[in-house]
Amino acid sequence: MILVTGATGFVGGKIMEGCKDVVASPSLRDATLEKVKRIIDESGADVIIHTAAISDIGECQKDPEASHIANVEIPILLAKASEGRKLICFSSDQVYSGLDEEGPYIEDIVKPGNIYAEHKLEMENRVLDICPDAVMLRAEWMYDYYTKRPNYYMNIINAKNTVSFSSKQYRGITYVKEVAENVDNVIALPGGAYNFGSETDRSMFEITKEFVEKLGLNIKVEDGPTRHNLWMNCSKAKNHGIRFSDVSDALIRCAKDNGNEISEKRKE
């Protein structure tokens, strides 16, 4: 049995939808260690997947205390209460946001560039100190057809006239359905931190331009200002059986899954 926190959220909801033998955790807001232990014991779970977080970078900057509670202290409670169960926590590619190197980045060198990233890295280190067998997934920007929260896919299909991405910015983006499809292999991972998601060797500008053309959308893709890279090498996870589609292939899969007609302009 798998206990999922944040089960009504973007990632947790997809795991609940796509996986078997899952149970939703109640809210852990204002949780105590005793309450968390009780939730875990009553769930009958032998695996805990922690997806709940405050992931809005601006919100974390404005309220660092709330960010620390949600993104560090609650995962620590889960680690202390897990008592031998497999614990999987979603971290973020933002742990690389302060690096000056071009990438792609491997797991060994990190440099947070914002409060959210600092808290995610602190969470990783403190949870692994308590539970060395825990798995930290440094997840990319994830997308799907999802109206409750902005994401790359929705930004593109809802765009009017123009979108802007830099030809010098490299970042993987991940179809959240493929996250759920990888859960069994994630559970089998040895403890540690893993870059987690689709890989690419193309810029966000190139990826977006091709996607817009394949969908036949009447919008212009502009080459925007240079931004930092969040470009990860995911070989460590792949070596343990984690498989994601290439970024461009996964975008087309998402479009087909959600009924968007693919343009005949650039069939490959």
Give an overview of the whole structure:
The protein has eleven helices and ten strands. It has about 270 residues and is α/β, with parallel strands linked by helices. The chain has a domain at about 1-145 and about 170-200 and about 230-245: 3-Layer(aba) Sandwich (Rossmann fold). Helix 4 (about 65-80) runs parallel beside helix 5. The longest helix is centred in the N-terminal third of the chain and has 19 residues, at about 65-80.
- The 3D shape can be described as globular
Mean pLDDT: 93
Please estimate the helix content: 25-40%
CATH architecture of the domain at 2-144 and 172-200 and 232-245: 3-Layer(aba) Sandwich
Counting helices, strands and paired strands, the structural category is alpha/beta
**What's the assembly state of these chains?**
single chain
Helix segment count? 11
The ordered H/E elements are: EHEHEHHEHEEHEEHHEHEHH
> Proportion of β residues?
15-25%
- Uncertain stretches of 5 or more adjacent residues: 263-268
Give Rg in angstroms. 19 Å
CATH superfamily of the domain at 2-144 and 172-200 and 232-245: NAD(P)-binding Rossmann-like Domain
**Distance between the ends:** 42 Å
Main sheet, how many strands, which sense, barrel?
6 strands, parallel
Strand order of the largest sheet: 2-1-3-4-5-9
CATH classification class of the domain at 2-144 and 172-200 and 232-245: Alpha Beta
